[in-house]
Specification:
Layout (H helix, E strand, L loop, with lengths): L26 H12 L4 H17 L3 H29 L1 H19 L4 H29 L5 H29 L4 H6 L2 H13 L22 H30 L4 H25 L7 H17 L6 H25 L4 H33 L3 H21 L18
Helix pairs in contact: 1-6, 2-3, 2-6, 2-9, 3-4, 3-5, 3-13, 4-5, 4-8, 5-12, 5-13, 6-10, 6-12, 9-10, 9-12, 9-13, 9-14, 10-12, 11-12, 11-14, 12-13
InterPro entries: MFS (IPR011701), MFS_Cyanate_Porter (IPR052524), MFS_trans_sf (IPR036259)
Keywords: Membrane, Transmembrane, Transmembrane helix
Protein name: MFS transporter
Amino acid sequence: MERSADVTAPDATAPGRGTRLPAPAAPVGLLVAVLLVAANLRATLTGVGTLLPDIERGSGLSSTWGGLLNTLPLLTFAATSPLVARASHRYGTAKLLAGSLAVLACGTVIRSLPSDIALFAGTAVLSAAIACGNVLLPAVIRRHVPGPRIHTVSALYVTVMGLVAAVSSGISVPVAHALPGGWHTGLAWGIVFAVAALPVWLLRTRGDTPAASTGAAPAPTPWRSALAWKVSFFMGLQSFGFYTIIAWLPSILARQGMSSTAAGWMLFYYQVVALTAGLVVPLATRGRPDQRFTAAGASLLVAAGFLLLLVPAVTVVACTLLGLGGGACLVLALGFQSQRAGGPGQAAALAGMAQSIGYLVAATGPLLLGALHDGTGGWTVPLVLLAAVSLAMAAAGHGAGRDRRVPAPEAAPESGTR
């Protein structure tokens, strides 16, 4: 159960408190390095949704197999995330991030090869690499950023991540149609971001001393914390909605008569609105560490957007509500993984738990929606289900938004659980 007392975050400079990055020459250097990693966290994933009709036609995949292709990254995130904190403790954060960027580039190449096996194998490899960045960025921010600014820095990296994702959604189909290779080329172009980020993190490996070399133990996963479970479910339910939109919004709109190119740009519009919302959230919540009603209210906007998506005449309104609510929920979900931790080492453990449980929940989304579409022959039942999931997200967000901390083991009181 969750401990009753809040825990003051430990000094980020204290020895033996988990893996640390080498001290940057200037704060802007660390920020640039973080943003370069953020640019890689969605670029190779979001274009799949817009290319899915071409992929299904070219490879003969059914909607269910198409849903599995979009679910595979989430299953890989869920399996890999619990391992990242311990790997970082053993090898060093910068070394692990640099290695993951190299693996991401290799996985992107494999996925673009003309083979169905390579399509799924490359997706699994690049997703495992992305999981490292997903888990480590909240820990990096928790260690190097003062508490009051965590939400702002989280919003910046979510903005870069979302901007690149939106561009990927918008241009993947035009790239596939304009260049040789078709959809294979459309899947491959995102490698440029991994190539750009890798040298920066290779430079940061200098002096990156693993915490294991100091004899410090890694922070355990906070399975017994009720707050950690709320953060995890909020992460999972918002990811359930987001990845389902990324996977199936173009197909939903195509069923309503929209062209694949126009549907791709509508997905781009949704993500631009989400970016705007993500930038506004830190300003709207500045000085207010209790974010229960912000998280719950944003979730209700998402529920309304899914229901309005049933009405083709108000598609733009539906995508606007989905973007506003979804963008706010994403920033909050990632920010909670830093803000609710009792220290930098605990942040990696909390992020690993939140993203393992969260992506396991999210993984059911694209596959379930694809199966429901095949079974019902339409999108009404799937969209109503998504609205119901968003209501559950409002409840989880109300709990995760409370101004509390998951206590670090060494700082936790001996009694007083609730």
